[in-house]
Automatic annotation (TrEMBL):
<dbReference type="GO" id="GO:0016887">
    <property type="term" value="F:ATP hydrolysis activity"/>
</dbReference>
<keyword id="KW-0067">ATP-binding</keyword>
<dbReference type="Pfam" id="PF17863">
    <property type="entry name" value="AAA_lid_2"/>
</dbReference>
<dbReference type="InterPro" id="IPR027417">
    <property type="entry name" value="P-loop_NTPase"/>
</dbReference>
<keyword id="KW-0547">Nucleotide-binding</keyword>
<dbReference type="InterPro" id="IPR011703">
    <property type="entry name" value="ATPase_AAA-3"/>
</dbReference>
<dbReference type="InterPro" id="IPR003593">
    <property type="entry name" value="AAA+_ATPase"/>
</dbReference>
<dbReference type="InterPro" id="IPR041628">
    <property type="entry name" value="ChlI/MoxR_AAA_lid"/>
</dbReference>
<feature type="domain" description="AAA+ ATPase">
    <location>
        <begin position="41"/>
        <end position="182"/>
    </location>
</feature>
<dbReference type="InterPro" id="IPR050764">
    <property type="entry name" value="CbbQ/NirQ/NorQ/GpvN"/>
</dbReference>
<dbReference type="Pfam" id="PF07726">
    <property type="entry name" value="AAA_3"/>
</dbReference>
<dbReference type="GO" id="GO:0005524">
    <property type="term" value="F:ATP binding"/>
</dbReference>
<protein>
    <submittedName>
        <fullName>ATPase</fullName>
    </submittedName>
</protein>
Amino acid sequence: MSEEHDGMSPTELYETIHDEVTRVLVGNEVVVERLFLALLTGGHVLLEGVPGIAKTVTAESFARASGLSFNRIQMTPDVLPADVTGTTIYREATGEFEVQRGPVFANIVVADEINRATPKTQSALLEAMGEQHVTIETETHALPDPFLVIATQNPLEMEGVYELPEAQRDRFQFKIRVGYPGTEAEHTILDRFDSDPELGPATITQVIDAGDIASARQAVADTFVAQPVKDYLLEIVTATRDSAQTEIGASPRAALDLLHAAKARAAVEGRRYVVPDDVKHLAVDVLAHRLVLNTDAELSETTSVDTVEAVLETIDAPSGDIAAAVPDERDE
């Protein structure tokens, strides 16, 4: 790690990328935060909302500001798995087969309208998201590091969409529901783009680099989690499994994703340790999309978000001085 990056904290790094991205975006601060947390922890993000509310613009703007390699895949019903991962082609000039890498070979991959692709094509991302490598014609190929999939999807009520299977949803660290902007934010959007019609992701400039990201990721890894906070996190996850409203609760992968996200939020907040509020703040976006509700819950129109929020209301956060449990700085 180079010394020039040692002085930039995760807080400063987040503020830098946030300020650049929000030159174009208005009212999507939560999305920018979650994308940044995912980048620091090796997670992936699913954005859901109706067309026209800047899901793709958000993803592309974040990718450009990060300075990492970026590809976008428009996931339509005719997209094949090989169109995502790649294939082998025969070169007549050499008489040999050559691997043609697909668009998944980038640091940040935007899978636009992922639930318009067929389940077979959706599943092509599973290996990439879970293992950070793909298999092309029996050969395994490593993907770049860092690797972040930002997928957008339309609500299931819309025509021509396929529901993501449980295994696919579980690969996403966060699912964020992007709604319409408030009146004030929409006034700002109108004014900003009226005065500068060319404003868009192409106007975003790189403000951080790979060294910055590596330094921040190390700071996250070093963030301390006291045992009472871990117990609180696991109590929340277990409660989603025991809930009378769920058929399937949050997985062990979900628990790890929530732990890592809480550590990243603590680092961005300028702390060396996780507090219960870090866990509570992120629990809905990490856990809700992984739950499978039972028939009773569906008939009562209870949502998975309702279920996680109810769990959070029933579990008391640990009290006491969490900071006092933080060990002294270790010798380098």
